[in-house]
Design goal:
The N terminus is likely disordered. The protein is mainly beta and 73 residues long. The radius of gyration is 11 Å and the shape is globular. The relative contact order is 0.28. The termini are far apart. The strands form two sheets. Strands 1-4-5-6 form a four-stranded antiparallel β-sheet, with no helix packed on it. Helices cover 10% and strands 42% of the residues. It has one domain: SH3 type barrels. A hairpin with a 4-residue loop joins strand 5 and strand 6.
Length: 73
């Protein structure tokens, strides 16, 4: 059972990310706590810890998927 089940609206983002192909889904931007972050690829989702991994092309960004409010493809 995953920690992605709770009452937060942003858990829908976590659930959506869990359906995407790992390492090959192009995403250009995410928004976390009203801050826009430019990324290039969705890398992975750690469902147990609710951590989403994104590549910027030169580095990896790790964010709590429950805090993501926007995905731009």
């Amino acid at each position: 059972m995953s920690n992605l089940t709770s009452n937060s609206n942003n858990d829908h983002i976590c659930a959506y990310l869990s359906t995407l192909p790992k390492g090959s889904t192009a995403i250009s931007q995410i928004q976390v706590d009203d801050v826009s972050i430019f990324v290039s690829t969705f890398v992975n989702l750690d469902e147990l810890d609710s951590l989403a991994y994104f590549s910027t092309g030169t580095s990896t960004i790790i964010v709590d998927c429950r805090k993501i409010s926007l995905l731009i493809f």
